[in-house]
């Protein structure tokens, strides 16, 4: 994650990944130990969005969504 973030700085990265890889990315983004990240259920074919933000006050990860299923959206 760190290597790709650096290599593609300022660009979007789209990855199709296994639930275990998504949990690993969440562990890095949230600075969780491997055991703690097992609390996340990652649904098949769901969307997880992680944004890496850089600014004058520092840098870090923002969790945009976990397990989003846009095809199940119900209009209001």
Task: Walk me through this protein's architecture.
The protein is of the alpha+beta class. It has one domain. It contains three helices and two strands. The chain has a two-stranded antiparallel sheet. Strand 1 and strand 2 form a beta hairpin. The model has no long low-confidence stretch (mean pLDDT 91).
Topology, pairings included?
Layout: H1 2-7, H2 19-30, H3 34-37, E1 47-55, E2 58-68
Antiparallel strand pairs: 1-2
Taken from the alpha-carbon principal axes, the silhouette is: globular
Strand content: 25-35%
Unreliable stretches: none
Class inferred from helices and paired strands: alpha+beta
- Reading side by side through the largest sheet, how are the strands ordered? 1-2
Helix and strand sequence: HHHEE
Number of domains: 1
The helix fraction, in percent, is: 25-40%
N/C terminus separation: 36 Å
> How would a textbook summarize the main sheet?
2 strands, antiparallel
What is the helix tally? 3
What is the rounded Rg? 14 Å
Q: What's the β-strand tally?
A: 2
């Amino acid at each position: 994650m760190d290597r790709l973030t650096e290599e593609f700085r300022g660009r979007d990265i789209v990855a199709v990944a296994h639930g275990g890889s998504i949990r690993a990315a969440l562990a890095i983004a949230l600075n969780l130990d491997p055991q703690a990240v097992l609390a996340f259920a990652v649904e098949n074919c769901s969307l997880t969005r992680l944004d890496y933000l850089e600014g004058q006050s520092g840098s870090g990860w923002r969790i945009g969504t976990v397990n989003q299923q846009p095809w199940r959206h119900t209009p209001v």
